[in-house]
Design brief:
This protein has 9 helices and 3 strands, in the order αααααααααβββ. The chain is mainly α. It has a 3-stranded antiparallel sheet with strand order 1-3-2, covered by helices on one side. A hairpin with a 2-residue loop joins strand 2 and strand 3 (219-222). 33% of the residues are buried.
Length: 223
């Protein structure tokens, strides 16, 4: 009788703990996913980013409606994501937002996004040239003429060729991840540049007018 009672108590305790775990998992999943019908500050932040980068018109009202859903789908298609109109972990990462909300995840997201651009834009370049491309992005974050986040700079319309030709979706080189970390930690072989270009492939006459700081590999880094 006593053993049966112990087993019953143990079973009830396990069921209770399991229920708590399920509730926590559901809440985490809900917190990290935004779709039509969602509302709040996170939705407003999503809208503000989409407006700033030209995917959404109007004001950020914090309500995830049909217009926001369409803008999210447009953003997803442009960035090689499943165009379902749902802002889950992958889309949050692309937007430069942390799915979990903690500082470590935010830092990891910045490294991942920066590494994708470095790999796409500077694959095959000397390591210092890869770090320099990352530094240019971070220099823009600090510059008053550009958005003040890594994601904002990266997704600014027309800013980087890889965002137009689809190279951003290619596998990321290990060296690009290291270069991203070095750039975020303060390394800047570019000498403070806010622009770079390959003179063999550049199609803009304007970019040649920028004051040259240095040349690394195939890229000219400019002020």
């Amino acid at each position: 009788m006593r053993e049966q009672r112990k087993r019953l108590i143990l079973s009830l305790a396990l069921i209770f703990l399991l229920n708590i775990l399920i509730i926590a998992l559901v809440q985490t999943a809900q917190a990290a996913t935004y779709r039509r019908g969602s509302s709040g500050q996170e939705v407003r932040t999503i809208q503000e980013k989409l407006i700033r980068w030209g995917y959404l018109e109007g004001t950020a009202d914090g309500i995830f409606g049909s217009r926001t859903e369409a803008a999210v789908k447009h953003f997803q298609r442009k960035n090689g994501l499943t165009a379902d109109g749902i802002v889950g972990p992958a889309t949050l990462e692309a937007l430069g937002m942390s799915a979990s909300g903690n500082a470590a995840s935010s830092w990891d997201s910045d490294v991942a996004l920066l590494a994708k651009v470095i790999s796409a834009e500077a694959r095959g370049e000397p390591y210092s040239g890869q770090v320099a491309v990352g530094a240019v992005i971070l220099n823009r974050v600090s510059h008053p003429s550009f958005p003040n986040t890594i994601a904002g700079v990266v997704y600014q319309p027309g800013a980087f060729t890889c965002m137009v030709d689809g190279q951003i979706g290619q596998p990321v080189a290990d060296s690009a991840v290291r270069a991203a970390r070095d750039a975020i930690n303060g390394a800047d072989p570019s000498g403070g540049a806010i622009y770079y270009f390959n003179p063999d492939t550049a199609t803009s006459g304007w970019i040649w007018s920028r004051p040259l700081i240095k040349v690394i590999g195939n890229h000219r880094f400019c002020a």
